[in-house]
Amino acid sequence: TSINTDKQTLEVNTSKSTPYKALVLAWGAEVINPPLTGTGLDSVYAINDLMDYRRLRETLISKDAKKICVIGAGLIGSEITNDLLNGDFQVEAVDPLAHNLASLLPEPAGRAVQQALEEQGAKFHFGTTAESINTQASGKGVLLTLANGLEVTADLVISAIGVRPRIKLAQQSGIAVNRGIKANRLMATSAANVYTLGDCAEVEGHVLYYVAPLMAAARALAKTLTGTPTNVEYPAMPVTIKTPACPIVVAPPAREAEGRWEIQIDSADNKNVIAQFKDAKGQLLGFALTGQG
After folding, report:
1. Could you report the per-residue pLDDT of 195-206, keeping only the tens digit for each?
2. pTM as predicted
3. CA angle 162, 40, 47 (to 5 degrees)
């Protein structure tokens, strides 16, 4: 597949070009694979679509898997860990950061999530990474060696270290990219009549992998493409993280925001955390809530 932005044509596995008046790039995101070595790489799974999920389910059944190692304890890793625990699997998780959801939550809130998942049976290895994965001598299961020297056995491994925008074809076509395909508030890229939408888009420096911003952008772009140029406007968009062991709602501050977290712990077990991110003037720029309220 190739795009000729000067001629405004698209080629898809054929020598025949298809002209376009407007083109929307909505390629989504691709999983980030951990840099593992060893003989057990075929036992590492990632979930990015329904086919991935189907393959994982089939493998869990065919291998009669009981114990899973999850690489990553961010949003995806924490949700998967909770789901596996609810399915009566044993779970060990590995993450280089200090606590769950470290890129979204301040430490007390992340520790509340960790505590809740540990109470359901999870075991976490923070501050280290998985370096190699090898098939066990018995032929059943794998052995992961961590950077800190510890070893973890599992029936299979789920990689949940995150996703990144698919930008390769845009880059090859001369369309401006950064972390994602760069776009303005009209969702327009650097190429005339080429727009972008969804997980592959970077709108004025922001890559937002959530449903609410995607829907807001889709509504605005639909109006633009039908003759009414419309800037996308993002309302307050708190994210509900699906960890029922410790419910979470978070509206993270912008990447460039300057300020500090103010923490209030509202329960004896430290699970009900109210965290507010404020700037020097006391303006609220983000928040995180954990627990049952």
Report:
1. 999 999 999 999
2. 0.89
3. 30
String of DSSP letters for 185-231: TT-B-SSTTEEE-GGGEEETTB---SHHHHHHHHHHHHHHHTT----
Residue in 42, 34, 45 with CA at minimum distance from that of residue 147: 34
What is d(CA 65, CA 170) in angstroms, rounded to the nearest whole number? 40
Domains of the chain in start order, with CATH, are 2-28+164-225 (3.50.50.60), 33-161 (3.50.50.60), 253-290 (no CATH)
Q: Please check the confidence at residue 283 and state whether its pLDDT lies above 70.
A: yes
Contact between 59 and 142 under an 8 Å Cβ cutoff? The reply is: no
pLDDT in tens, 224-277: 999 999 999 998 889 999 999 999 999 999 888 999 999 999 877 788 999 999
Query: What is the distance between the alpha carbons of residues 168 and 180, in angstroms, rounded to a whole number?
Result: 10
Q: What is the mean pLDDT of residues 25-50?
A: 95
- CA distance readout (Å), 222 to 87, 89, 212, 227, 278: 40, 44, 16, 9, 35
